[in-house]
Amino acid sequence: MSEVIYRKYRPQKFSDLVNQEHVRKTLENEIRTDRIAHAYLFSGPRGIGKTTVARLLAKAVNCLNRKEKESEPCNKCHHCQEIMEGRFLDLIEIDAASHTGVDNVRGTIIENVRFVPHSAKFKVFIIDEAHMLSNSAFNALLKTLEEPPSYAIFILATTEPHKIPETIISRCQRFDFKKVGVKELTERLSHLAKQEGLKIDKDVLVTIAARSEGCIRDAESLLQQILSLGEKRITMDEASLVLPRSDIKLVINFCEHLFKNEISGALQLVNNLLEEGVDLEQFVGDTIEFLRKLLVYSVDPELATLKAELDEDIEEKLKNLNTQTKTPRIAFLISLFIDKKREIKQAEIPPLPLELLVVEFCENQENKKSIQPKTDHPLGENQKNNQTHSAGSGQAIEQSARNARASEAGGSNNISLDNDINKDKDVSNVNERAGDISFDSIKNNWDKILLEIKKQNHSISAFLKTGQLIAFSNQILQIRFSYKFHQDRIKDVKNKRIVEQCISQVVGQPVKLEFKTLEVNNNAGKTNRVIEDALEVFGGELVEE
Fold it and tell me: E-strand spans in 152-282?
């Protein structure tokens, strides 16, 4: 039986490691200077080389031919050969996922560590998936980690370091492994293909690397499937028989339709997806992942973590699409996709949630255009009517324009907030220039305020209608609710910010909310009020029999 690629080409020297320079350099220096720690913690995502590095460390410290001031194992001596073949008696590997109990730790580690190495300088214990150990097992291991014999080295590998007790972590030298970038993965796959005597088109290798999401083992496993095709030259046509279908072009086309508010084109694309038998849930997942990259790119195109995930073609497409939209719209669209992805599973008509998303997003943006700053008057028509002291108020105009842009995000939990650094400065400028507003002006504009809030969140607007405006003083608006439930909903941090910002947008000044609760003693009146509020919030009507 032929050996699988990820085992056949497992790195046997530190120089073979991919994209873990911070780990490699530190360990090589420790080996060269003979300053080996007694315990290590290797943490990071799956399939990126934690166990491989642990074995390399065990091989390097026990290599018989390694010279002073060198770090690489020779891979030829008796010890190196035995470690490579998995029969070295002084290298003990434990799978904590299947040996979680305290008895396993006592029997495999604590009892074993008492005896000196069989033939090597160090006895190395590798505990894979260490976070799976029970609390009792960790407690039993703790004493050994505190006072280990000089010949013992412990290496704990985990994908979930937060589950490991701090008492264990504090006694280990910790290394956090990173995902491998698309570029590095592509180079690795190209090297392996040459080793196997195959020619594989670059776009195939890039697709494999992107699909692997930074996991070397996954990338090499996909390459193994490509090799099973038995072809000497692999193009995308052949690779598509094995690789999961990539709809990145359709995803980008779909996003372009949405950001251009092209409802017809977007709906037609959804219909085409259905006819072609595309898995809509997978398509939505791919779209969310692409929009995540676009969101990060729109904030900082040079972000290192983003660069690691992109190939040149995708980066160019992100750059072009970024010119067509703004960050708040991207965030809003991501939230819509996340909601609709949940609904697709239960939908009686699978494409309906996606079609509703198209209409909801595009119509939302069309509605927002009516309140966007206009070229002839930056405040827009509503703010123009309410800004009574507009003369010379450049700072107030700038603040109002920012508020209008903030409404771009829409949705119940996606309203854009002002930059915290400039917030206090902007607010003070508005106070100085815009003048005071009266309680009557807030009451007169209350319907307009509720309409603005309704665009952000329908239920918040409905709950506010059940409240009563009491007073306004020192930019604090007091509202009384008959029921604590209504008050608590509005007091929620996100909901309260939406209300305060919408009020400030309409009246032209920052306004804070303060709440009062009125308890109703009359049971009959209370019952009727509850029914009325329920009908208001849920949009129902009372039917008499």
Answer: 152-158, 173-176, 199-200, 233-234
